User: Fold this.
Amino acid sequence: MTYNIAKLADFNSALATELKNHCYIIVGLCQQVHREMGPFLNEYMYQEALDISLEENGIEKVKEYYFSVIYHGRQIRHKHYADFLINNDILIECKAVERLGTEHRQQLWNYMRLTNICIGILFNFAPVHDQCERYYLDKETGNMYMF
Assistant:
């Protein structure tokens, strides 16, 4: 499945602002991990550091959030994991790559669609300047928006 991504602020600026505020602390903790750990480390090191920061800040989270996929009424046995589920409504995918690509975005978007979770954060820790992308899945229309 492919998505045509639009800026949420162009359609609903109030919702875009609300979602940015909702994710503010989470994105800030990701940025803090990047500042303190530095660039060019292994993805798993950043995940562990983020797990510690989330815990220290009392944020409800599930690390390596497992979800199952149903196909033709049957569960696919392969286990799927998103890096984090935050407060039961935000998925985070952590990356440590030179630059985010379509395959990284598509992975997060598919996870959002398959879990029915509307908010997703894609955070790349590896570059000197971190990369953060936030997405909103409109469940009614199936449209994906960047905010």
In short: The longest strand covers residues 74-86. The first helix runs from residue 13 to 37. The chain has a mean pLDDT of 96.
